[in-house]
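About this split. The held-out portion is used to measure sequence recovery: a designer receives only the structure tokens and must propose an amino acid at every position. Recovery is the fraction of positions where the proposal matches the reference. Here is one held-out target exactly as it appears in the evaluation file.
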């Protein structure tokens, strides 16, 4: 995901709420940062953690290097990928944040903070915790060590256990309007074509990080094909073949996840002007696409089969309006 500044459009209310709590006598020990993926929640969490542990002190190191900020995110998938990370190269990560990471963090919490009275634990994203990791984390949320504060970044809070959500104060990050996304793309990705920008805005659904990632992957043609499948169907599988060609034989994980978001956006856009029965078909296809999107990050799907599944769901929603109204 494309990195964004820690302070971004739409974060003003979140900062106001955080800093009001920070200046109060009783700071809640656990915070759940929710909103669309790519909105900047992770960057906010890291800057907020620095404010928490660095109150009254001078210049602080980066969050990843601060002794009183523990960041739990996806580790490299193996030793080779770890070496790539150490060399500053792109690397593959594990599918989940592991229970071992939670237990290592809990061992650290048995000692006192190094530079001050407070310590911050960031889990980004908490949605990807292993089940055993969630259960282990609950123990720390129920009985937090003195001065320890948790910041859980969540793109899909509904995937978290109610017992986790109930122990956190919610900090919401709203989606941005299309005009703001368009302005961001013009500023930070000025070489992106009009079609690619249009696809990025449609897929982003208010998330600037998603928009930038999509625009820089040049997914405009993919979006166009998806819209055609929803609009006219694909009885002879020609468009689905073109869709597979456009994705490529070995698409990256980011491109596959991006394609799923694009497909959901194509279905949402098709609702306008659709007949009543077609709207029901679109809603049914969108629900199936959402379930597929939830499974994709954790299951080892064959890329070719996944692309055909996406195309099939898009085609299932493509019922001509005339035929629908005649039934």
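Reference sequence for scoring:
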């Amino acid at each position: 995901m494309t990195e964004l500044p820690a302070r971004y459009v739409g974060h003003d209310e979140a900062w106001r709420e955080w800093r009001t709590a920070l200046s109060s006598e009783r700071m809640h020990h656990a915070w759940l940062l929710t909103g669309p993926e790519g909105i900047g929640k992770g960057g906010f969490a890291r800057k907020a953690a620095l404010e928490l542990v660095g109150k009254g002190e001078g210049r602080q190191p980066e969050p990843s290097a601060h002794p009183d900020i523990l960041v739990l995110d996806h580790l490299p998938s193996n030793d080779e990928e770890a070496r790539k990370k150490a060399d500053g190269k792109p690397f593959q990560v594990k599918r989940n944040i592991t229970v071992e990471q939670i237990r290592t963090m809990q061992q650290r919490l048995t000692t006192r903070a190094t530079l001050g009275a407070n310590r911050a634990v960031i889990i980004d994203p908490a949605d990807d915790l292993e089940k055993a990791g969630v259960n282990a984390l609950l123990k720390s949320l129920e009985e937090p060590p003195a001065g320890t504060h948790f910041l859980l970044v969540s793109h899909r809070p509904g995937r978290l256990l109610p017992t986790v959500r109930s122990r956190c104060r919610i900090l919401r990050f709203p989606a941005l309007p299309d005009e703001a996304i368009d302005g961001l793309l013009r500023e930070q990705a000025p070489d992106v074509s009009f079609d690619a920008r249009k696809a990025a805005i449609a897929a982003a659904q208010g998330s600037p990080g998603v928009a930038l990632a999509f625009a820089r992957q040049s997914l405009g043609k993919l979006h166009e094909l998806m819209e055609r499948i929803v609009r006219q169907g694909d009885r002879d599988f020609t468009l689905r073949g073109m869709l597979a060609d456009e994705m490529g034989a070995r698409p990256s994980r980011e491109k596959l996840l991006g394609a799923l978001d694009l497909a959901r956006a194509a279905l949402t856009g098709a609702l306008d002007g659709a007949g009543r029965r077609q709207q029901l078909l679109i809603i049914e296809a969108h629900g199936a696409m959402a379930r597929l999107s939830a499974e994709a990050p954790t299951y080892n799907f064959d890329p070719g089969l996944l692309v055909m599944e996406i195309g099939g769901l898009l085609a299932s929603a493509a019922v001509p309006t005339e035929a629908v109204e005649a039934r």
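Annotator remark: The mean pLDDT is 85.
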